[in-house]
């Protein structure tokens, strides 16, 4: 019995390490450029490690069972009847329930924190239409631009609108994503944490030109942002 448990654990460890290496060695998500995306990635890794452990346990049991209790090719006899194991049935019902509840709690906390408005947030209006994005800064001047520019370290409050069909505003490196719906204003908050150039994309199929609905996003220093605003005003 003890030997079988050791073998089962060994198989689980090997499978777990192999899957963990796949999870760690490949870059599955864009590099984070915002505080909100950092929190989203925390959920991702929480769910990933949970999945790695579950997969390793289930795969180890399957591999061990196939190896330990395999029968010869010419054996057509039926196996002995079994009743089941009440303890195991309770365990594999309770454990997944606890994990799902934990994941739900963590997700709710992150969603709540990502929806918190900070004092002095920059107001940005994102307008989607087939097949382009335009941006307005209501507090800073009466102008529109096809380029999204944000100051690093300052939270931006995005208000999304659409003039035709449903679009979806997303800057992959900033993490937050929200639909732009005709007749409805939606909003998200983003706090850039590093400078750089990124892409604004539409992630809702919005027509034949959906794949071309892109815009440039830049995160700059506060001084560069102020200078850019002055240039737009003039």
Number of domains: 2
Shape verdict: elongated
> Which fold name corresponds to the CATH topology of the largest domain?
Immunoglobulin-like
CATH class of the largest domain reads Mainly Beta
Spans of at least 5 consecutive residues whose pLDDT stays below 50 are: none
**How many DSSP helices?**
4
Computed over alpha carbons, the radius of gyration is 26 Å
Beta-strand content estimate: 15-25%
- Write down how many β-strands occur, each being a DSSP E stretch of 2 or more residues: 10
Question: For the largest beta sheet, what order do the strands appear in spatially?
Answer: 3-2-1-5-8
Give the N-to-C terminal Cα separation. Answer: 81 Å
Mean pLDDT: 91
Q: Percentage of helical residues?
A: 40-55%
User: Helix and strand string, N-terminal first?
Assistant: HHHEEEEEEEEEEH
Largest sheet: 5 strands, mixed
CATH architecture of the largest domain: Sandwich
What's the CATH H-level superfamily name of the largest domain? Answer: Cupredoxins -  blue copper proteins
- What structural category arises from helix and sheet content? alpha+beta
Kindly summarize this structure in a few lines.
The chain is an alpha+beta fold.
